[in-house]
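Structure, all two chains, one model.
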Amino acid sequence: MEKLEPNEMVQRLTDFIRMQGDFDSVAIENFRKMPGGASREIWSFECAMQRDGETSRRAMVLRRDPGAHNISTNRRHEFLVIRAAFEEGIPVPEVFWVSEDPAVLGSAFFLMERIDGETLARRLLRDDTYARAREVMPAQLAEILAKIHRIDPVEHKLDFLAEPGDNAALTEVKRYEENFRRLALEPHPAFELAFRWLLERVPKTPRKTLVHGDYRIGNVIFGPEGVRSILDWELAHRGDPMEDVGWMCVRAWRFGNDKKPVGGLGTREDFFRAYEKASGAAVDPEAARFWEVFGNLRWGIITISQARTHIDGFVKSVELASIGRRTAETELELLNLIE
Amino acid sequence: MQDRPTSIELLEAAADFVDRELVPTIEGARQFQARVVANVMRIVAREIKMEDPLVRSEVKALARVLGQDAPHLHSLDDLHAVAVSMGEELTGKIRAGEADGGDWRREVLAVVRQSVEDKLRIANPRYLESDIAIRNAAKTK
């Protein structure tokens, strides 16, 4: 990918927006890079768009694939999923335009509304500013999740999402087992015990819905009043909605507040009841436990994968390297759950 | 052999500098990375201090659960190699379903828990302490 300087990006983006929106003129201000990690680039800016003497202004975010990496998820797919969520009244950014043409900005990208707020779990759990948010967010997150699971992929033409079989759970377990065997550089008997436990308890998939795939504190923009926006839809797929419920209960997202299993904010029972109320569907506690164990195992494999990224030299980072020593935290949680 | 300070003293001195002098002066992502650096140094210091006896006891425990004689080894590298090969033997049996139930399952769970706790003694002792406290509190309910 050609390396574009920010002012070249601004120039091309200005032209792109003008053409896409059929504006007379477009002005971009305060174009700046936001922290986004190695696998994504996020830029923020203010956009003034003029047509027929009327000017509108929006705060926007550019989400672009970095050039050097092998990106496994698709920006256009993510764009379409966010748009479907927006149309269903789920708190997400309004998406504007998407492009897969590398001639514009070097790689695939899309533009969406910028939503201001906080994402750090540490602040949510410790700052007095967020005392009210802590109280209301578990129920809010349950209600929003129920809405996400009502998004009809057919109605919203999300046909790129693979049809799950009757056994979405087994497919997921086997997929992660393959990843684990490819990535682990030493034996992990705790993971092996967890895989056996899961394989003996695979739930059928009574409901097949859209699944967010990474629904957790860390992917939520919030303010003192509560949830403002749900982020990071790139892992959305079709499957068992209990997968999202289980992921919310994974220990890593409690950020030390282990007395409150759901995101360090509340109990499983309260979260399940709120989800049941909003969705009209019962939460089978055994299925939820299956997906919680699966979620912890998935997170453990992610910690191995992140350490490998450093060890193999793809991204040299002391942070990524040190994550390899956190796998044991997840192994301990798995032993606690399956014993 | 090396003069004082020991490797552990050097790492602790470096980690203290990072935590006390560096971290308070920087912000944002770099401050976070600096904290990670200090933490990594403390992990390595604990590993230098504790790894030898921990791997020895792990090899003994694995040998016991696999029904083998514990090998007499001296170098840490040899111990590591044996821990890995025994670990692979154990995982092979787990995959084959041999630990799905019965008495042997209990032995396997105990050995695996011990080795995971040993990893945390080095990587994150506070996490282990807090986990033990939570589990004890749950038991007394």
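Residues 90 and 304 of chain A are 33 Å apart (CA to CA).
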